[in-house]
Specification:
By secondary structure, the protein is an alpha/beta fold. About 25% of the residues lie in helices and about 15% in strands.
């Protein structure tokens, strides 16, 4: 039989053992409270009665946890996000800083593998996935939130999209940025935002144009994939926090950066693949011809804006991969430490 509810002539049956116990205690204590003439009536008697009255006055169970849902990405069904636990309305988190978040701006190119690479929101089953970077380094180690946005020919990057993010990753973009999009990223950086850039042949044959649409204003050009075998990059040029404790990172088929001579004061080179004649470091002929006297070919660089913005570039995305697979991954040499240092610096922790 279902529980009876309050009506014009009855009362609701208690819905739990705890409530029945509380009601029983209230009924036994209430006569003593109402008719006792003793001035020494314990305060606890009054408190118990009042609390029980409040409990049975209709304070039902907490509402069910609300399941947040993600917006569909590129026509794919949205995946449910982690459910949020019920928080009573009287609790306050005003003393806690808001969680910083990272946005990966990806492209929609699908390479010969028949699946996109470097995704932070896929099922993690492919070696080129970034789900371990997301879960283990960004979310677990650094307590960062992680989101993903797929940039296609039909959508765009806007200031509103970037406003709530501490770090923007220019990931597997497959098209050049428009003038307006490059301007939005520049304003974000100049006003204190952080960005990371890297390129790879698997992101599409012209993906370098995407990064160069933004990087060119700083005297930086990302070169094409050199299609070289795996290489250990141990020429650490700086004691910068990004390189703290890092002796070696490993790449494969790297896309290095040309830092023009006139901008070396603003662009700090942290690591290089040297010598350039070494297997794994060799530049394609067309890119080698672009290097002028005084320019530096870098594997890792950083720079900062007057407004507190931070920008970094890494010559290979393989070191962020789940693995195991060809090239490198998060668990080889000092790749994990480097990734943690890099995103800690970018997120200003």
């Amino acid at each position: 039989m279902g529980a009876r509810e309050r009506g014009s002539g009855g009362e609701r049956e208690p819905r739990s053992a705890e409530e029945r116990g509380c009601v029983g205690a209230m009924r036994s204590l209430l006569p003593h409270l109402l008719f006792s003439s003793s001035p020494s009536l314990p305060l606890s008697l009054l408190l118990v009665t009042v609390l029980c009255l409040a409990f049975t006055a209709g304070c039902g169970p907490a509402p069910d946890a609300v399941r947040a849902t993600a917006q569909p990405v590129d026509g794919q069904p949205a995946k449910a996000l982690t459910p949020r636990a019920f928080v009573p309305s009287f609790s306050s988190n005003s003393d806690r800083p808001a969680q910083k978040r990272v946005l990966f701006i990806q492209g929609d190119h699908v390479p010969e593998s028949d699946y996109p690479h470097s995704r932070v929101g896929d099922d993690g089953s492919k070696p080129e996935s970034f789900t371990r970077l997301s879960a283990e380094v960004l979310q677990n180690d650094l307590q960062l939130g992680v989101d993903e946005y797929v940039l296609t020919a039909g959508n765009t990057i806007t200031a509103g999209q970037l406003a709530n993010y501490a770090v923007i990753v220019l990931g597997s973009n497959a098209r050049a940025l428009t003038t307006d999009e490059a301007g939005v990223l520049s304003t974000y950086y100049q006003k204190g935002g952080s960005l990371l850039a890297y390129a790879d042949f698997q992101y599409g044959p012209n993906n370098w144009d995407s990064d160069n649409s933004f990087l060119g204003q700083f005297g930086i050009e990302v070169f094409t994939d050199n299609f070289q075998p795996a290489v250990d990059i141990s020429a650490v040029e700086s004691s910068h926090p990004v390189m703290a404790g890092v002796k070696t990172i490993r790449g494969e088929g790297i896309s290095q950066f040309r830092i023009s001579n006139g901008t070396l004061a603003e662009n700090e080179v942290l690591a290089k693949c040297e010598p350039l004649a070494r297997s794994g470091c060799i530049l394609p002929d067309a890119d080698q011809a672009k290097v002028q006297a005084g320019d530096v070919v870098a594997c890792v660089f950083v720079r900062e804006s007057a407004g507190g913005g931070r920008l970094a570039g890494v010559c290979d995305r393989n070191l962020f991969q789940n693995g195991p697979g060809p090239g490198s991954d998060l668990d080889q040499v000092d790749d994990r430490l480097f990734a943690r240092n890099l995103f800690r610096w970018l997120s200003k922790q």
